[in-house]
Design a protein that fits this description.
With 104 residues, the chain is an all-alpha fold. The chain has helices at residues 3-15, 23-48, 53-60, 64-71, 79-88. The chain has a domain at 25-89: 434 Repressor (Amino-terminal Domain) (Orthogonal Bundle). This is XRE family transcriptional regulator.
Length: 104
């Protein structure tokens, strides 16, 4: 379990089950989940290329702690930053909107 997952679970414990019915809690939870998923994708691609966080940071014109925060799910990068990361990772950036399925 990484730090972001621990924080999410800890917040659930502190806020109790009733907090999960709160739309603001749901929004923040989804944002945290997206940040974590993105961080995992950056980590996976970086390690597949054999790059250290410092090397990736240099390719992006960033500092190593910024890469660490992204990989840890501690921040949600802007679209321009996502483009820089994609270029530095020799990858394409694809953003999709997937419609919700309407259950009857």
């Amino acid at each position: 379990m990484n730090h972001a997952e621990w924080k999410t679970r800890r917040h659930r414990e502190l806020l109790s089950e009733a907090a999960e019915d709160n739309p603001e809690y749901d929004r923040l939870y989804e944002e945290t989940e997206l940040a974590h998923d993105l961080g995992q994708m950056v980590y996976d691609r970086r390690t597949a290329l054999g790059l250290s966080q410092t090397e990736l940071a240099e390719r992006c014109g960033m500092k190593q702690p910024q890469i660490s925060r992204i990989e840890g799910g501690g921040t949600v990068p802007t679209i321009p930053l996502l483009r820089r990361l994609a270029r530095a990772l020799d990858a394409d950036l694809t953003i999709n909107l997937t419609p919700h399925s309407n259950a009857a």
